[in-house]
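Record format v2
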Amino acid sequence: GENVEQHPSTLSVQEGDSAVIKCTYSDSASNYFPWYKQELGKRPQLIIDIRSNVGEKKDQRIAVTLNKTAKHFSLHITETQPEDSAVYFCAATQGGTGTALIFGKGTTLSVSS
Amino acid sequence: ETGVTQTPRHLVMGMTNKKSLKCEQHLGHNAMYWYKQSAKKPLELMFVYSLEERVENNSVPSRFSPECPNSSHLFLHLHTLQPEDSALYLCASSQDLAAHEQFFGPGTRLTVL
């Protein structure tokens, strides 16, 4: 089955710096890769996603890149702000039919002002 | 109420009790999910339902029993749980299986004494 590895587990940056979180997946048939943000005490919410036919996607300060050959994808946050502090989860579909999402273990991002 | 709702929000139960968690989605989605979120293993997929049929059972112990009476409601029946089952139980829904954004409920914080 699919296995998703996420690094780093914790990340601390200064306000205004960039943050990068990386994930690798094992199932070459995976075709959808979302990123979720979970603030303390709140539910996870989708912030950006990418499908296997696209190499990069950007939404304001957030971007995701996908390298299908190497089976890894990354989340890039530029000009970080204190409100970006949260736990970020990557995920990949379990196989091409995508009956389920398999999540990484999460990255706790702390942005200090 | 809109989105995905869960009741109760907090539950404390003994190991011999029987209780049920309820999830309701008001989004017209066809797929619903149960996840377990604990400090040691964030966002573990438990069950997946599509059009009221279970399509995934991720090696979950039989003391957890899901029920999906219709596409808007999902239950998780709990029986003779163990203290290590204490966690946040999150319900989610999506338009169809996996390769679509999942919308999470607020979760039920379960404590097993």
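Chain A has a mean pLDDT of 94.
The longest strand of chain A covers residues 86-93.
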